[in-house]
Every structure is written in C-alpha cells, then in structure tokens.
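Private note to self, pasted from the team thread so I don't lose it. Backbone tokens:
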C-alpha cells in the first residue's frame, strides 16, 4: 500500500513540475489561485491564449533608401567638368558678352570655362602694361624735345600746337619755313616772327631735336595700336564667351546621370536584407 501511495505522489510531482515549466516567464511569481483563474479564462476563451509580448512585435519592411553615389557623364565640351559642376539654369549669352567687354575672360568665367578665358585676361593685363609703358615714354620724350627746343632754338613753348613742334624739326629757322610757305602760296600757314620764332645753331641741333620728337610721336602711335589691341581682345573674348555659354547650355540639355541607392529591408520571418536601386535620368 505504501508503494502505491509513493508512486502516486511521485507522478503528481512530475506532472506539476511540467506544468510549471510551461507557464510563460511573465506569469512567474503568481499565486496558485491566480494561475487557476487564468487557466479557467483560457478554457472559456481559447482564441485569446496568452502570448509572449515579444512574439507580437513585427518589423515592417524598411522603405528607407540610402544614396551611395552619383556618377555623371562628361561632355566633350567640358572634359574636366562633371554634371555636378553645372547649375540647373541656363546662362544668358548677353551677360557673357557684357562681362567679356568689361574684362576679357570674365564671359568665359561666367560659362564655367575660365580655363579657356584666362588667356584673354592675361593678354589684357599685358596690353595695359604696354599701354602704360608707351605713354610714360612718349610723355618723357615730349618733355625732352620741348626743353631742348627752348634751350637751343629760342622757342617759346606757350600756345604752340603739335604742327608747330613738327615744323621746327624740319626747317632750320622760321625764315626758312615762311619762305617755303610763300613759295607754295600757302600764306595762311606763315608764322609771326614775334610769336613763333625759332632758329637752330646748326643742322645737327635740328636733327637731334627731330630724333626726340620722332621717338615721342612713335610712342604715342604705338599707344593707339595698343588701344586697338585692347578693343580687339575684348571682341574676340566676347565671341568666345558666346561659344562657351552655348556649349554650357547645350550640355545641360544633354545631361545624363546614374544614381545608385541602397535600402535595408526587415521582415519578421526573414533575416534583414539589402536592396540596390539604379536610377538613370535624362
């Protein structure tokens, strides 16, 4: 009889221990009465069985995209520039012309092609340097020949025009000049001896004066050529700026780019996965 009772007790203990092991962790610490109440509820409502809170957590697929890189095609007109170097708006050729007329090379800079326009800027700077040099030299020689004429030819400098200083380098004295004008019947060109008098001591003085006068005149003639070169440099730069702006605008219409993005997709029943997207835009 004792053996039968011991066997019953042992089986009851085993069944009770297994029941305790099946109770979820979040129900541990409950009293026996509470457990019985929960068991009765489960019997009445089997569809509302207790689930572990963690089992109700789901991870919806992620729609977040992470851009990785952007690769842009290069245009033949812009071999060292990518599409990212361009703005979304087209350039105005009239502004390119205006900028180049103000300062050569700035029109090309406006078109993002100063690598091509910098030579016009350099040429402009050199021309301005030459312009200043010829002006300084011409004024210096002018002062020299006037001082020489005043000291050696008895010339009064006040009120004299450029023709007078040219004539005194051709004729030895005012008498020789007036005689030549009278013979040519150009009486309106005759000078008054009291106002326009000059007389060189010898022909060497006249030649020396003439040399200084020619140097000054040649310098001022060169200044005129430099001014013409400055204007021409601006015109060529303006034409080139229009070409560069047109190429820039054409490049915008031909813009092509490839975008690569990576996404992370999570699923409750599957491991996380990576997705790659390739987008080609015209």
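Design output:
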């Amino acid at each position: 009889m004792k053996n039968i009772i011991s066997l019953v007790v042992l089986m009851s203990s085993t069944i009770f221990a297994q029941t305790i092991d099946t109770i979820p962790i979040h129900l541990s610490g409950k009293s026996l009465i509470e457990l019985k109440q929960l068991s009765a509820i489960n019997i009445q409502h089997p569809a509302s069985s207790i689930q572990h809170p963690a089992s109700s957590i789901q991870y919806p697929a992620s729609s977040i995209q992470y851009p990785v890189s952007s690769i842009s095609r290069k245009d033949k007109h812009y071999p060292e520039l990518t599409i990212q170097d361009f703005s979304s708006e087209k350039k105005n050729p009239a502004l390119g012309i205006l900028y180049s007329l103000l300062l050569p090379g700035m029109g090309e800079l406006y078109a993002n092609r100063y690598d091509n326009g910098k030579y016009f800027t350099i040429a402009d700077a050199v021309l301005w340097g030459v312009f200043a040099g010829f002006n300084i030299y011409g004024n210096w020689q002018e002062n020299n020949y006037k001082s020489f004429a005043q000291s050696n030819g008895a010339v009064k400098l006040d009120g004299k025009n450029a023709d007078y200083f040219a004539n005194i380098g051709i004729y030895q004295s005012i008498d020789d000049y007036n005689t030549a004008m009278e013979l040519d019947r150009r009486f309106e060109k005759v000078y008054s001896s009291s106002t326009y008098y000059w007389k060189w001591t010898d022909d060497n003085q006249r030649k020396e004066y003439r040399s200084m006068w020619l140097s000054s005149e040649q310098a001022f003639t060169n200044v005129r050529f430099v001014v013409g070169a400055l204007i021409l440099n601006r015109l060529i730069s303006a034409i080139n700026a229009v070409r560069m702006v047109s190429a820039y605008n054409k490049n915008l219409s031909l813009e092509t780019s490839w975008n690569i993005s990576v996404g992370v997709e999570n699923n409750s029943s599957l491991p996380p996965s990576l997705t790659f997207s390739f987008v080609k835009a015209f």
